[in-house]
């Protein structure tokens, strides 16, 4: 098993990467809000048990639903990569946003989604662009009900065409 530019293995667990993307966006959101050090935030996500208590229609506790654990190596690589390359990522995003938008104007969580997606498109060539775009649209759909997922799709698609020479697979 070999490792790639993000320090992750070539053999991977897709559900673990999806969970890592969700945790990375949440971590980046927290870091953007409090401007703290990444390590304590990452530690809290890595040590967190990914469960939620499920209640029945009558309010009875039905137990815990477990979620897939995030790929910890991938999570760390995403968060640290976005932090390290934030200025370059923001420049890329500025070029892909419409004329009435700037990166600072984006809602904090939307900005975190786009930065993470831009980082993967620019630094993870082994992951197909269409996978990255779909994954971050799913993340956006988990948090937003309006046009934000479409905006994520449009901006990341535009970046993919530039960064990947139009290759989406």
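^ Assign residues to that structure.
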């Amino acid at each position: 098993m070999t490792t790639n530019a993000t320090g992750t293995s070539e053999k991977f667990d897709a559900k673990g990467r999806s969970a890592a993307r969700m945790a990375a966006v949440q971590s980046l959101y927290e870091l953007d809000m409090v401007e703290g050090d990444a390590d304590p935030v990452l530690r809290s996500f890595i040590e967190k048990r990914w469960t939620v208590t499920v209640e029945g229609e009558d309010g009875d506790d039905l137990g815990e639903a477990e979620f897939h654990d995030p790929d910890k190596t991938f999570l760390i690589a995403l968060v640290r990569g976005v932090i390290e390359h934030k200025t370059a990522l923001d420049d890329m995003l500025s070029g892909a946003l419409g004329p009435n938008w700037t990166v600072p104007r984006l809602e904090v969580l939307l900005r975190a989604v786009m930065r993470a997606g831009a980082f993967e498109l620019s630094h993870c060539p082994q992951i197909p662009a269409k996978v990255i775009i779909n994954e971050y649209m799913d993340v956006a759909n988990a948090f937003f009900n309006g046009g934000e997922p479409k905006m994520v799709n449009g901006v990341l698609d535009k970046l993919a065409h530039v960064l990947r020479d139009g290759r989406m697979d």
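The domain at 14-163 is CATH 1.10.940.10 (N-utilizing Substance Protein B Homolog; Chain A).
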